[in-house]
Amino acid sequence: MNIKKGLFVLLGSIMAAGMVGCSSSESNNETGTESAGGDKPTYEFRLAETHAADYPTTLADKHFAELVAERSDGRIKIDVFPSAALGEEAAVIEQVQLGAIDFTRTSAGPLAEFYKGYGVFSLPYVFDHDDHMWNFLLSEHGDELLNELESSRMLGLAYYSSGARSFYSTKPVASLDDLQGQKIRVQQNAVNIDLMDALGASATPMAFGEVYSGLQTGVIDAAENNYPSYYSTRHYEVAPHLILDSHQRIPEVLVISSSTWSKLSTEDQEIIQTAAKDSIEFQRAEWAKFEQLAEEQVREAGVTITKVENVLEWQSKVKSVLDKHGEEHQEILDAIDQYRN
């Protein structure tokens, strides 16, 4: 018995030593580890990103991480995991809520499931143009939306750009009339389905990964997204007709788990919050470059591009969608109106 007891003690000591030496995110999230000087803790956190390593949001994630490392003298390290290495968007958000993942960059769309105010971004033609959107996002009203996520055990740190969504089709489309009756792929939510109905099209919910084959085989006639997604997925190969109506502008959001946030000192919270805000300009610049590249590439590929000159006609057509879904967002819509110029 004494020999067995001695072995158990020895094994326990080895396991404890291994845990002390661990530098994983989970270990550091629990208590932090003391820095060399012994006065401030060090952390290693994980940031989940669904896009590829060279995508504008991923580049901004990395820039954010670099700013945090620099301003904390290397005490706070944030490892960015691109290409959905830590899971797809919806699953990652749940892990952030639980504190199993520290940060994520997500579209504002899925966040409406956690705070309904984010549903305002899915409403059609809410913003007149990109500057209008950013005037709102960078205001106190935009900050309020970020803070409202606290009720869902998360905290919004900053917004990133994702451009404007427009329609592209396998058939020539140069006007609103050309969309009539077309089967258009949409994300599965009531606003998008009602939007297609209002435009006279047929909403066809479908997973994003199935869109290329759907367009190729005729299961759908059209889809909608921003320039970079249209280009990077090569949807232009099977849907070479693009009409720029900019019906939605849904920003990206950089989010931190409330569990992670609560473990940080006021000083470290300030470092992370400021770095996130300071990374916005970098991301917007990277997005603009990629958007321009995408446009140039699809034009060279022979895509027919039509810009909607009279968007009032389109806005009038979807008024029923705003009447039906806008009431619950009226306070935010009134705030958005303040930033028109």
Automatic annotation (TrEMBL):
Region listing for Disordered, in residue ranges: 22-41
Keyword Cytoplasm: no
Leader peptide range in chain numbering: 1-16
Pfam families referenced in this protein's UniProt entry, alphabetically: DctP (PF03480)
PROSITE patterns: PROKAR_LIPOPROTEIN (PS51257)
Domain of life, per lineage: Bacteria
Key words, A-Z: Signal
Name of this chain's protein: TRAP transporter substrate-binding protein
The organism of origin for this protein: Halalkalibacter alkalisediminis
Taxonomic classification: Bacteria, Bacillati, Bacillota, Bacilli, Bacillales
